[in-house]
């Protein structure tokens, strides 16, 4: 039994009941909400280890909920929705979602995705990587630069983590997309470019002249010691 708390947000009672039963059967503690407002209130009152979030809610969007949730929590978010357009997926991921699953989805796949995002965000005894004034604590998922805390979305941190673990090594766009977002996103070059740009804005003293996160044109990216 995991004992980890999962918040399920969906406006369809039948889906809420089914997911609550399946998740409890898998050993999770489960809270539910059927509106954007109740989702944020429940998450604030009983912080979850993960969120399964419908995209369309009666009083808002799952993307908006995710964006607000990200201002104070780094718990992984899986968006579960019948809306399957790529632009909707990119918007949700840019708002801080960790994964996007299109309905209908089998419970076994959903549980596997939930286990995967929880593994990525669990402390694992990984090292602290120091690159110039940039300090990346992989176990505690914290980042500072020149002693100042840097607030990253889960995907931004996971991107920096992969680069930090391969310090100085060129990683291709395909490698980064597959490692951070999964095999289904290997062609989403724009998604990677947006996150690299956002990451640079947060860690680089001058993002127009990067010192840490360098682009190898036509090849990929590498994290380096500033020279």
Provide an overview of this structure.
The structure is a single chain. This protein has 227 residues and is of the alpha/beta class. The strands form four sheets. Strands 2-1-3-6-7 form a five-stranded parallel sheet, sandwiched between helices. A four-stranded antiparallel sheet has the order 8-9-10-11, with helices on one face. Strands 12-14-13 form a three-stranded antiparallel sheet. The protein has two domains: 5-121, 3-Layer(aba) Sandwich (Rossmann fold), CATH 3.40.50; 128-223, Winged helix-like DNA-binding domain superfamily/Winged helix DNA-binding domain (Arc Repressor Mutant, subunit A). It has eight helices and 14 strands.
Write the layout of secondary structure elements.
Elements: E1 5-9, H1 13-25, E2 29-33, H2 36-45, E3 50-53, E4 56-57, E5 60-61, H3 62-69, E6 77-81, H4 86-94, E7 99-102, H5 107-121, E8 128-131, E9 134-137, E10 142-145, E11 148-150, H6 154-165, E12 171-172, H7 173-180, H8 189-203, E13 213-216, E14 220-223
Parallel strand pairs: 1-2, 1-3, 3-6, 6-7
Antiparallel strand pairs: 4-5, 8-9, 9-10, 10-11, 12-14, 13-14
């Amino acid at each position: 039994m995991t004992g980890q708390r999962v918040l399920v947000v969906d406006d369809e009672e039948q889906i809420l009941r089914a997911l609550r039963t399946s998740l409890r059967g898998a050993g999770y503690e489960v809270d539910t909400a059927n509106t954007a407002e109740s989702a944020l209130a429940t998450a604030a009152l009983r912080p979850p280890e993960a969120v399964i979030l419908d995209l369309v809610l009666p009083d808002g969007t799952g993307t908006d909920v995710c964006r607000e949730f990200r201002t104070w929590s780094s718990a992984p978010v899986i968006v579960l929705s019948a809306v399957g357009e790529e632009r909707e997926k990119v918007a949700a991921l840019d708002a801080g979602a960790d994964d996007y699953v299109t309905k209908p989805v089998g419970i076994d796949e959903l549980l596997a995705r939930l286990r995967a995002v929880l593994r990525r965000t669990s402390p694992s005894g990984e090292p602290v990587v120091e690159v110039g004034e940039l300090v990346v604590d992989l176990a505690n998922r914290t980042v500072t630069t020149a002693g100042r805390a840097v607030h990253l979305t889960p995907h931004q941190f996971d991107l920096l983590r992969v680069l930090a673990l391969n310090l100085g090594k060129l990683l291709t766009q395909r490698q980064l997309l597959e490692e951070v977002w999964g095999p289904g996103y290997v062609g989403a070059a724009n998604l990677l470019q947006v996150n690299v740009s956002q990451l640079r804005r947060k860690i680089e003293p001058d993002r127009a002249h990067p010192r840490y996160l360098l682009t190898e044109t036509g090849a990929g990216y590498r994290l380096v010691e500033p020279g």
